[in-house]
């Protein structure tokens, strides 16, 4: 495999664009797909430690680290488009549980991954932190079984939280 060339990247509008426009309202259309050149299983992990959204009732800001992990099938998400997409939640009002499910649903629609999980580690507000987790495996495959197993066991060994 020789790698990617200009022809394989020509459909990307954001990568390398010096005139990036940041959207302040939720916009899933920002996401850009890119071909997965590898047929084997492997994880792609993204961590977004500066995620923000708004409480739908009070309008107060919610801060989180969003952890995305997926096993791609034929498509990946281009990382700059993902960054701008996550930024688009800046003025979006939704509950923490809704945010992680919206992100997962948008990425499933874009990529149709073999497996995906999204975990939000929200900083405490009012003395309470909320850490919603969701996942998905392609139905009828070993990835559906993996999703079930990881859902049942995802928090058996809680990690050390160092960002709050």
Automatic annotation (TrEMBL):
Its EC number is 1.7.1.13. It catalyses: 7-aminomethyl-7-carbaguanine + 2 NADP(+) = 7-cyano-7-carbaguanine + 2 NADPH + 3 H(+). The keyword Oxidoreductase applies. Signal peptide: none annotated. Catalyzes the NADPH-dependent reduction of 7-cyano-7-deazaguanine (preQ0) to 7-aminomethyl-7-deazaguanine (preQ1). Belongs to the GTP cyclohydrolase I family. QueF type 1 subfamily. This is NADPH-dependent 7-cyano-7-deazaguanine reductase. It comes from Planococcus faecalis. The lineage of its organism: Bacteria, Bacillati, Bacillota, Bacilli, Bacillales.
């Amino acid at each position: 495999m020789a790698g990617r060339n200009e022809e394989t990247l020509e459909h990307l509008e954001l990568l390398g664009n010096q005139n990036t426009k940041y959207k302040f309202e939720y916009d899933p259309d920002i996401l850009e797909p890119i071909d997965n050149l590898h047929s084997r299983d492997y994880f792609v992990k993204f961590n977004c430690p500066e995620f923000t959204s708004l409480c739908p009732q009070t309008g107060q800001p919610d801060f989180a680290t969003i952890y995305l992990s997926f096993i791609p099938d034929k498509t990946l998400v281009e990382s700059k488009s993902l960054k701008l997409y996550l930024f688009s939640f800046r003025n979006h009002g939704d509950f923490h549980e809704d945010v992680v499910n919206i992100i997962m649903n948008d990425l499933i629609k874009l990529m149709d991954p073999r497996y995906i999980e999204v975990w939000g580690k929200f900083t405490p507000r009012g003395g309470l932190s909320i850490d919603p987790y969701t996942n998905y495996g392609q139905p009828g495959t070993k990835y559906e079984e993996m999703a079930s197993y990881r859902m049942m066991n995802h928090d058996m060994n809680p990690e050390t939280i160092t960002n709050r």
